[in-house]
Design brief:
Strand order of the largest sheet: 6-7-8-3-9-10
Radius of gyration: 18 Å
Largest sheet: 6 strands, mixed
CATH topology of the largest domain: Rossmann fold
Bound molecules: adenosine-5'-diphosphate, magnesium ion
Oligomer: single chain
CATH superfamily of the largest domain: P-loop containing nucleotide triphosphate hydrolases
Distance between the termini: 49 Å
Order of helices and strands: EEEHEEHEHHHEHEEEH
Structural class: alpha/beta
Shape: globular
Length: about 240
């Protein structure tokens, strides 16, 4: 059983913004929802876990091995959807996924099978032959989700994956993830409680770079809602 340990990770950006402060999390297979308002530090933490940013201090271990020092072992089993994921506008969904599959060194037969399954599961078959630049934001987002799932990653890091999806697509995506997460670790960030309240095994709420709640959905959602209310009151007062 895989294990991801985030061990007292902090990140201070140039200019002194402390985006993440001493976050410690020990993750096992299942869906972990990372919930927090804009600016909480979710994307920063996910970039560090995905080995595309380095912590200022602290470390991350995958199955006991330090991935800050030696990222390759994790990269081989990682699927990552960055918050600002782009797709290539002149390729269609099939070509794009075939390209990513080659980069991930998935053999051609397996790639064909996986791409077919993902296009189907993400309801992309009707648009799979159209240039990605001509698709709606929601369709492009689902293609970006598919690229993260290619290669059957053992650790899936998805940063605000449901942005741009309509309610029906959100439900389909939730079901897909629930099936996928049976024996894999999924770390999903969102500021939308309903994305994770029914499917996450665990919810970690972060605010201002710190974990402020961590537990089952039932136990932590109250804390987040009061946080959101406080945030909205602040925004309202400022407007
Ligand atoms: N590349 C960067 N350089 C400087 N500050 C950054 C950078 N990325 C994020 N920040 C700041 O770090 C804090 C956390 O941002 P982020 O990790 O994007 O939070 P979230 O994903 O929860 O919205 C914010 O104050 C943000 O402005
Ligand atoms: Mg973010």
């Amino acid at each position: 059983m895989h294990r991801l340990e985030i061990d007292l990770v902090s990140k201070t950006y140039r200019g002194g913004i402390r985006a993440v402060h001493e976050i410690a999390l020990d993750l096992r297979p299942g869906i972990v929802g990372l919930l927090g308002p804009n600016g909480a530090g979710k994307s920063t933490l996910m970039r560090i876990v995905a080995t595309v940013a380095k912590p200022t201090s602290g470390t991350v271990r995958w199955d006991g091995d330090d991935v800050v020092r030696a990222p390759q072992a994790l990269r081989r089993v990682l699927g990552y959807l960055p918050q600002d994921a782009g797709v290539y506008p002149h390729l269609d969904a099939y070509e794009f996924l075939d390209y990513i599959a080659a980069l991930k060194e998935i053999d051609a037969r397996s790639a064909r099978r996986q791409i077919g399954e993902l296009l189907n599961a993400l309801d992309l078959v009707p648009v799979a032959k159209r240039p990605l630049g001509t698709l709606s934001g929601g369709n492009r987002q689902r293609v970006a989700i598919a690229q993260a799932l290619l290669g059957d990653p053992q650790l899936l890091v998805v940063d605000e994956p449901t942005v741009g999806l309509d309610p029906e697509q959100r439900v389909r995506f939730r079901d897909l993830l629930a099936r996928f997460a049976q024996d894999r670790i999924v770390l999903l960030s969102t500021h939308v409680v309903s994305d994770i309240e029914t499917t996450a095994d665990r919810i970690v709420v972060i605010a201002a770079g710190r974990v402020i709640a961590d537990g089952t959905p039932g136990a932590v959602i109250g804390a987040h809602l009061s946080l959101e209310a406080a945030y909205l009151a602040q925004v309202g007062a400022a407007a």
